[in-house]
Specification:
three-stranded parallel sheet, alpha/beta, about 10% strand, Rossmann fold, about 45% helix, 5 strands, about 130 residues
Length: about 130
């Protein structure tokens, strides 16, 4: 979901990927889209407290469209980090929208992929937000 434009503007991204070959593929694809080296950091699974604390380091959380963050999404929001989502057709793809509506943050629910990108870049680059 993260487009090259979002990756070029990212300061730090945190990912947990279970397979080392997947990490290499993600790094190659990100560099091809203009992401600067070192902007993506892969982290190990951590205890709940550390996991939530990590969420505070991000400018924005990019929710995945096919299967939303569910518990992880709530952890990020609880840490105070905004989360951008794009609601889909299935229950699993609408969870984050429901969370954001309940919390009074409908402006973080994108209308389409272009809107998702626009919201993510604004949150990642505007230090006043």
């Amino acid at each position: 979901m993260a487009s090259g434009r979002i990756l070029r503007f990212s300061s730090v991204s945190f990912c947990n990927f279970p397979f080392k070959v997947g990490e290499a593929n993600i790094l190659v694809a990100a560099q091809q889209m203009g992401c600067r080296p070192g902007a993506i950091i892969f982290s190990n699974v951590a205890a709940k407290e550390e996991h939530v604390r990590r969420g505070q380091l991000a400018d924005v959380c990019l929710d995945t469209p096919l299967c939303n963050g569910h518990t992880t999404g709530m952890d990020v929001l609880w840490a105070g980090t905004p989360m951008v989502t794009l609601a889909g057709e299935t229950l699993a793809s609408r969870v984050a929208s429901s969370q954001l509506l309940t919390l009074g943050c409908p402006e973080l629910i994108a209308k389409d992929r272009a809107d998702y990108e626009k919201i993510a870049i604004r949150l990642g680059t505007d230090k006043e937000l």
